[in-house]
Amino acid sequence: MEQTISSPGLLETVRRELRLRNYSPKTIKAYSSCLRSFVRHFARRHPRELSEQDIRAYLLHLLEAESLSPATVNQVFNALRFLYVELYRRPFMVGSIPRPQKEKKLPVVLSQEEVKGIFDAVRNPKHRLVLMVTYSAGLRVGEAVKLRPEDIDSTRNLIHVRGGKGKKDRYTILSPVIIEELRAYWKCYRPGGWLFEGQKAGRHYTVRSAESVFDSAVEKAGIRKSVSIHSLRHAFATHLLEAGVDLRYIQELLGHSSSKTTEIYTHVSQKNIGGIRSPIDQII
User: Fold this and answer.
1) CATH number of this structure's domain 8-95
2) Helix or strand or coil: residue 183?
3) In the annotation, is 140 catalytic?
4) 146, 204, 233, 239: which one is catalytic?
């Protein structure tokens, strides 16, 4: 463990430890990248030799000199905590270092008309259906592209989401509209192991491909809002809330561990905000 963490041996040790704790491949990749940059920043000084003040200075450097977002720096914090607490057994190294405060940004919400415009802008049936399934069930894009045919329960109108965020399974709704779309899709594509298969045999459709389809559709639909494919999930939650669905059910459908995460949609719901009359309406 005394070699530098940028060496293949120690990076592999970190990877194995993360894997043993059942961290996701995405998190393992992110932590490895964070730790590699951390060691490069301090050149020949080994991480064991660094003080709390060194780590504080590094996090401040990321925020000020490199202008990284608080969310990104928080990820670096988590990677460093894993290194010092789990591997070096030195909790005091990061125990008293404050995390950067998260920015409290509200999601940009697409209207139902805008969502339909995005669907209408996509001509390829498979590409269109990926977006429709993502919105109709409130899925993360990574969940949508990893669906298997057996996850679709048309009898009970449910979609089984396996291994979502936090390695959690859940059920979400399957729209009758989507059932009909899926039947037409099935006749045309006859998918095998994955519902949405990629170009390479045995691989599912990639997240990046789905993001590209969404971005292109947004441009074709003439939408000027700053949105990503994740905005379909935000729209799903907001539109359900505006339709009168209880927040607790929306929390379950989205797979949120805490109700506080779901409560953000009360701040962007037209039902809650749009229904309030401005006092100027009474005097003009």
Assistant:
1) 1.10.150.130
2) helix
3) yes
4) 233
